Write the structure tokens for this entry.
Amino acid sequence: MDTRALRNPYPDYDGCPASTQAFFDSQGKLTSEFAQRLSSKVSELLAVMENGLRSADPRNCTTYTGWAGIALLYLHLHDVFKEPAFLQKASDYISRSLKCLTRRHDVTFLCGDTGPLAIAAVVYHRLQRVQESDECINRLVQFHQTVVKGSGNLPDEMLYGRMGYLYSLIFINQQLRQDRIPLQYIQQISEAVLASGEHQSRKFRVQNQSPLMYEWYQEQYVGAAHGLAGIYYFLMQPGFVSAEEQVHRLVKPSVDHVCRLKFPSGNYPPCIGDDRDLLVHWCHGSPGVIYMLLQAHKAFGVPQYLEDALQCGEVVWKWGLLKKGYGLCHGAAGNAYTFLALYRQTQDPKHLYRACMFADWCMNYGKHGCRTPDTPFSLFEGMAGTIYFLADLLDPMRSRFPAFEV
Ligand SMILES: [Zn+2]
């Protein structure tokens, strides 16, 4: 992991209020100086991003690296700062995205057409363009039967599979604050994912260790983006699987199987059978697996899950400032969400302090000799993701890893 990360230059939290008082008070509220610093950096980076986007691929509609991701950033900034200009920007970018939908079989929030449709539905709803919003939701729901049936060997994971479609539905319900998409739709997808997982577990003859199993491109991925941890995170959300009994009988032992893959460092492999302890990304490794662990702790109350999650925090603190840069998917901003998740669950100021240190790193964007990503201004690989995180840190208890956390 040493070859992939830069040395963390920050002193760790020492338990003294003195070490945190420049950043937040005893209630976890950011100081006005630090909040101001974050806000000015958001404005400064936004100007750089806008300029950089002039040379972005005009035909990339996706949330992951295209126009929908930029729209999602502006929607978030509108939430945080309440400035109407941000909503207008979100509207401009999402209409650009809708003009170049993939029209392929990709059905996910991050890499397919349903992300742009879901984001558009929310943007139009906020602009009180009710008819256009409804139309986007109707188009989104039209994918439902195909996703449940899974024609064309649809996988189950987050980036290209059923869970990525499921997230589009949840996004609508969360943002419109109502059960706009009936829970039954979400449960039908969860059931299809469970059936697929039981089938694959039998196929690989691992029923005794893990009643569910999933593969993508002939690999059994472990992390949040393509793998088991991302899938189980959603299956453990209250009500997503209608029969509680299935969560205990199928999901819990499968989560335990992932837990057994932990390296001595506290990190997790990218795939089952890969024993190289190298990657500390949201997409592969502990910064993504932690969401499964924290949800398992909420769902089953077993202390070991929280202990494993805390160990993820230690891994990210040591090896999370990546040479790959400052992005969400495999960068410092995405890794910083590990600390925010731990802070929300434990309220231990140590984790908020660590998130603030990673934010400081991100505010020195470009000064550490990191690599430039392929899409340097995008939401998941580039600067838009870093801005999203800096704005999210302003209200730590409301923060959520975008396009993923419920
Ligand atoms: Zn990644």
Q: What stands out?
A: The chain has a mean pLDDT of 96.
